[in-house]
Amino acid sequence: MFPLFYLYWRIAANDLKEKFFSKSTFAGAIVLIILSIFFIAFGYSLGYGIIYSYYHHEFKMGVSVNYAVKLFLMMSVFFIMANALAPLKFMKQLNYHVLKIFPINTAAIFTFDLIIGFIDLRLVLLFEVLISLTAGTGGFSFSILHSLSLLIMSVSLIYLIHLTTELIRSFVKVLTSLLTYKIIGAIIATAILAYFFILKNIPLKYFLRNNPIAWNINSIFSYVLFKDVHWIYNSIMINLVCSVGLFAAIIAVRMLHNNLVSQRLIHENQAFKEKKKRITFPISIFPDNIRMYLMKDMRYISRSNRVLTAVFVEIIIICVVFYFHFTHSRIYDHFLVAMGFIIIGPVMLWDFYLSNYWGFEKIGFGFYLFSPAEMRYAILSKNISFIFVKSILILLMSLTVSLLYSFKYFMPVLIINFILVLIMIMFSNIIAVRNPYPVDLKEDTFSQTQPGKFSLAGFIGLLLYLILPCLLIFVIYKSGAGIIFYASSLLILSLCAALYFFMLAYSSSLLNEEKETIYKTLIKI
Amino acid sequence: MIEIKELSKNFAGVQALDKINLSIHDKSIFGFVGPNGAGKSTTINILTGIVPPSEGSVKILGYDLKENPVEIKRRIGVIPERLALFDGLTGEEHLTFVGKIYGLEQKILTNRINELLYFFELTSARDRLIETYSQGMRKKLAFASAIIHAPDILFLDEPFENVDPIFRKKMRDILIRMRNNGKTILITSHALIELEDICDEVAIINKGKIVYQSRTEDIRKKIKDEISRETYQSLEEIFLDVVGGSDEEEKDNKLSWL
After folding, report:
1. Is residue A452 part of a domain?
2. Cβ neighbours around A193 below 10 Å, total
3. Less packed terminus of chain B by CB within 10 Å, N or C?
4. What's the gap between Cα B242 and its chain centre?
5. Nearest CB partner across the interface for A523, out of B82, B97, B125
6. Residue B149 Cα to chain centre, angstroms
7. Tell me, what's the ipTM?
């Protein structure tokens, strides 16, 4: 395994050498420093807050300490989600298929991957949070030994989270590889859920409270509130034992994938070379000069797993709106809550597609450099293909909201959604030029490898995206879906449409300027 | 007609091309050879508008490359080094897209796609995504894309790499047919025997400079030096003589363990 560490070290060193003096690294370092300071201060204040409210009941204002525990549980769940959904690997250059050429056994490659994955950027950020938690509780530690124990516990917890998410991802990879496994996976998952939630009637909070991660968090509170250190030691032991078990499970699942699924997939690929079904879209209604781009983009959008994931999750959002409406009527039965889902959910989902849509064309982007392609139409076509897919979802969402609340909301939801779409595309046209990165069609949002970049245009776009619909919802809240709403929303819609064409002209000139740079990035020169 | 005057390209301090002057006549196949990193692909990239030059001027079909890039692009076909294929499309979809960009009518386009797929034996793979194609199939598709609109000038960067002998022969036949029909073709390649066979003229580039240029029919007549009166036998001999390293003998003494 030593040569692999050497290889990783050289790649990381060369990468750092190149990026060390770049603006983004500098900005990233500043952000990390600010985050560190923030999290440590946050941890301290939270630690003091908990202990103070515990010993001074008059400051609790009816809120029990239990809420703070729940808050931490939610935070940890959030970070596990973030961990699973945004796997930005340091070692993305170490391709398993390349490593396989060398005389290294598969288990060694997987073990190396699991060990080195520990310094993943996301885990470093998670480490920041846990250090802050340690700092918060550190204010109440009674000895250096206790502080050190807390630190060891935090590190072992991060590794446990890393291994848990890796196991989930490995399982998902196996289950999604072949249709047979998908069906088996779905049946087993349904059976398990039905057993616990229907037959045994065990509530979800039972699982949230009884797992190693929750025990770790609870042990910190036990330590802070009851000065009970033995739970810290217990947690370290639990983490170590679970880590060993998870480690073995991951290697086993990956070996299974490598030996069984990969072999079969290769065989199937060579034997059948699956033909792509031709899907027809009503593109003949568009002018000639845009039709050819649209033909290509509609196919890309229908074949991209990022898009499919976004569509899938948007449908889940619709189901969630339904679910909350029927099960939590007292709190959630309000039009504004549904609108909150409609506004916030999609912007996060579609960002992964819209911020880098040139990335899908990869090496094909070179064609634009030597052909008489017109980039204005190429951008317009990407926007139209997105609107086409999104329109179906918008219609579905508007109908859902209308059915649940009232049909008087149908048009307002439709208009607000189209304003959101216009804002989304006009800014992503610029961000996509500034943020090229080759993307695999099979790459879904949950396993995307695109590095995140801060963009001022994106930030301004996000502000507009949140402010304008909120203004309109406020109008509905104050004066209903009447004439005032329609007048103001149509005014905003017209302004957005005018701004869109201005931004389209700007982004196409920007794209023409940046074509060569984008091409070089997409082919990784 | 392609006219290149004082063409230079500088990449972050590296002089990739150094004041190149070249004239390529109509109705000819022009071979452009040189060792790796000599500047062949850079030249093609500039001529096809992929990369802008640092200095110098280029005229293609009477148009200045800086002033009329779109008009030139409409009338040329290109197989770039990295092929520029849309991996997410099927072979047929890619050809349709390319044909439409070059303004071909649907009826003509459909006929040409069918003929090209048949000719290059890609018919059975027409509905498969390009990302599943082998290297040879990708090369065939890139070649089909480059000729689908019957360009006046064809630029080919390493066309003979990763192709089987059958396709290589087909490609040669097409190039000769195109030349006979009045088209101009510029090829860069390391396949010297192929070039010697089909090219009307060749130029050798080394370290960004043209170090040799001749009509192929004159190659064998060329006298190596005035004293020995020795003659070259092939383009390969000229190539090794012009760009071959002076330390070959020293290098032969290395790798003693083999």
Report:
1. yes
2. 10
3. C
4. 21
5. B82
6. 18
7. 0.80
